């Protein structure tokens, strides 16, 4: 079974979606492995409405707290960005490794990330111009909608080979970010992937492309979970996973726009 590069999907019950054989004869499985058994279903099976509702809820919370931070906190919003980023990172790790679904933790993550995005957005608006925020939001929603259409129409099929390529590309991108962060403590500008130059522009374009393809993996993982009858509570994990990708995409588009408008 294909897996998403987004770590949130690790919290789906172990053994692969082939084990989610609700309604199948005892001992059977969608994957054909006769040893697999379905986990007990605590509630009703997951539906597309669950995914849409939970994703919309988390997105609304993030946008709401981001807007409040941006417009109410004003210049102080920038001071909130770093602590919010740290808290958000910790909450993300807890959500990823916690075995039991916790809607409260997913909601908390969404709210804290909203504060972070509000602070970061205010900083970019002050450095460049306020219009860059609207442009970044429009770009993020545009990429998300485009990749959803690509997935639903089957224009790009999510194959095991494509999955491995995307996971490897995402891992490579984050490794370079980490190297650049560490190098920045010793050399001004690090390795140059965030200094606004041609290399930085190219790297942001690469990250935007990778994030776009990660959406395909997330859509496919969610689709397979729905088809396999995963418990409805896992819609919170799916919403969390999609939010992680959306936030990364927004930040990369925001960076790219700042590079281009500062030239």
UniProtKB/TrEMBL annotation:
Keywords: Membrane, Transmembrane, Transmembrane helix. Pfam families: BaxI_1. It comes from the Bacteria. The lineage of its organism: Bacteria, Bacillati, Actinomycetota, Actinomycetes, Actinopolysporales. The chain crosses the membrane at residues 51-72, 78-97, 104-126, 132-153, 165-187, 199-222, 234-251. InterPro entries: BaxI_1-like. This is Uncharacterized membrane protein, YccA/Bax inhibitor family.
């Amino acid at each position: 079974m294909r897996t998403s590069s987004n770590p949130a999907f690790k919290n789906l019950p172990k053994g692969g979606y082939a084990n989610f054989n609700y309604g199948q004869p005892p001992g059977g499985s969608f994957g054909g492995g006769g040893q697999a058994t379905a986990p007990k279903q605590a509630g009703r099976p997951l539906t597309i409405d669950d995914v849409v509702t939970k994703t919309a809820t988390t997105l609304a919370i993030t946008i709401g707290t981001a807007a409040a931070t941006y417009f109410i906190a004003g210049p102080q919003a920038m001071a909130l960005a770093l602590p919010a980023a740290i808290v958000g990172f910790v909450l993300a790790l807890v959500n990823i490794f916690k075995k039991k679904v916790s809607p409260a933790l997913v909601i908390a993550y969404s709210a804290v990330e909203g504060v972070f995005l509000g602070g970061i957005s205010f900083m970019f608006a002050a450095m460049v111009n306020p219009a860059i925020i609207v442009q970044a939001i429009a770009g993020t929603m545009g990429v998300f909608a485009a990749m959803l259409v690509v997935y639903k129409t089957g224009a790009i099929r999510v194959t095991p080979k494509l999955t491995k390529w995307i996971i490897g590309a995402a891992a490579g991108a984050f490794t370079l970010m980490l190297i650049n962060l560490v190098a920045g403590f010793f050399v001004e500008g690090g390795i140059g992937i965030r200094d606004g130059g041609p290399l930085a522009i190219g790297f942001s374009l690469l990250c935007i492309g990778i994030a776009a393809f990660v959406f395909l993996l997330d859509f496919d993982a969610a689709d397979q979970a729905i088809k396999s009858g995963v418990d409805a509570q896992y819609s919170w994990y799916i919403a969390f996973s999609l939010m992680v990708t959306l936030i990364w995409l927004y930040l990369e588009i925001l960076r790219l726009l700042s590079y281009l408008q500062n030239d």
